[in-house]
Design goal:
By secondary structure, the protein is an alpha+beta fold. The protein has 15 helices and 7 strands. The strands form 2 sheets. Strands 1-5-4-3-2 form a 5-stranded antiparallel β-sheet. A two-stranded antiparallel ribbon has the order 6-7. It is globular and about 50 Å long. The relative contact order is 0.13. The structure holds a DNA duplex.
Length: 280
DNA sequence: CACCAGGCAAGCC
DNA sequence: GGCTTGCATGGT
């Protein structure tokens, strides 16, 4: 099996894959992470001076994984820029190996619709069932993996099919979003090219996509780093540390404080605050 | 049993 | 614009 080696500078597998931005990267007993993207299944492993990507060729690294893993961005610069106070220095110190993945648009859209009023373990469970039921199988050395289903595949489903996967009341949103995407009404390249505010307005026309889901999709799949997705955890931390209590106040405060680095700051804060709560 | 989980739409004001 | 309520499902 071929593998490639990349720098581990500002890149930690636990931080990146368990910070909450993605739902389909799974930590293995040996500490490696397996996942699927771009129709490819790979395994990442940390070594003392590098990260090894297994089941990946140099050309696959160059054409896909380098961008997906955001390996060409200078996170040292980002971390300096968002370290505006003691809280942010603590959060950056805690999750300093986070990289914002460039996830595929349709996968992010469906996953974050499922995420609303849901718990992360349950989100992962439902997404995994969706892939096992409707994705393409990929045979690997560590078992059968499944790609995230194409929009065309999900567009023929009915509400009851999503309900059978445990999606609950989000079933009708998933039907609608899948059909819109399959029709080409949601073109990720067009959305990516739009100014952030316009892309938000466009994506929020989808039923089941509100402020928070919209921001997560645009941040985690289209690189709209000027967004500060504000969920219960971020609202909490902004209330505690920046006295911005409401969701809208927290979001605008975050975006004013961090500007084009809002998405990175949000992710350091989210990971730090949520892990801190877990330990207690 | 109640309450919460990476919220949202609809119905009010 | 902002506020309230119901919502499938699984966990504590």
């Amino acid at each position: 099996m071929n593998s490639v080696r990349v720098s581990n500078r500002d890149f930690d597998l636990v931080h990146t894959f368990d910070c909450g931005q993605c739902f389909r990267w799974n930590r293995q007993p040996d500490g490696s992470y397996t996942g699927v993207a771009g129709g490819m299944a790979v395994r990442l492993r940390e070594e003392p001076d590098s990260v090894v990507i297994e089941n990946c060729s140099e050309s696959e690294l160059a054409s896909f994984w380098r961008r997906y893993l955001d390996l060409d961005r200078d996170y040292g610069e980002i971390k300096r820029a968002v370290s505006i106070n003691d809280l942010m220095r603590a959060a950056v110190g805690y999750g300093g190996g986070i990289r914002i993945l460039r996830q595929e648009f349709f996968e992010a859209l469906i996953s974050y619709i499922i995420s609303q009023n849901n718990s992360i373990p349950n989100i992962k469970r439902v997404v995994e069932r969706l892939c096992a039921a409707y994705g393409e199988p990929i045979e690997t050395e560590w078992g059968t993996a499944y790609s995230f289903p194409a929009a065309e595949r999900l567009a023929v489903l009915e509400e009851r099919d999503f309900r059978a996967l445990g999606a609950g009341f989000r079933d009708r949103y998933l039907v609608g979003a899948s059909r819109l995407a399959a029709e080409g009404a949601l073109d990720p390249e067009k959305l990516a090219a739009m100014p952030t505010a316009e892309a938000r307005a466009e994506l929020m026309k989808v039923k089941g996509v509100g402020n928070k889901v919209c921001d997560c999709v645009l941040l985690f799949s289209l690189g709209k780093f000027d967004l500060f997705p504000t969920d219960t955890w971020i609202r909490k931390v902004m209330e505690e540390s920046f006295s911005a209590g409401s969701v809208s106040a927290a979001k605008s405060a975050g975006e004013e404080l961090f500007g084009g680095y809002s998405g990175f700051a949000q992710q350091y804060l989210f990971y730090w605050r949520r892990e801190r709560d877990k330990i207690k």
